[in-house]
Specification:
two-stranded antiparallel ribbon
Length: 85
């Protein structure tokens, strides 16, 4: 285990793919409550751990599929189609 600013967790590089995905799912699920109700130190630890996990995912999947609706041009297209400009 490694320690990062008071947070203990398995180094994301050591997680196998299913464990990394499960950790990401869990941390994203808990994000809202941590933001609203967590102490400053809990939020800081959450930020660090989430960044570590996301960085590892991106390192492993540099060519991940990107949905066109999740890009700036895709968002602009949605705005034009809905009459917002």
């Amino acid at each position: 285990m490694k320690e990062t600013e008071g947070h203990r967790g398995v180094d994301p590089e050591r997680l196998d793919e299913p464990d990394l995905l499960r950790e990401l799912q869990n941390i994203h699920r808990s994000r809202h409550d941590t933001l609203l109700y967590g102490s400053d130190s809990a939020l800081a630890a959450h930020n660090v751990r989430m960044a570590e996990l996301e960085a590892e995912y991106l390192r492993r999947h540099p060519q991940r599929p990107v949905a066109s609706g999740r890009t700036r041009s895709g968002a602009r297209t949605r705005e034009c189609e809905s009459g917002q400009a």
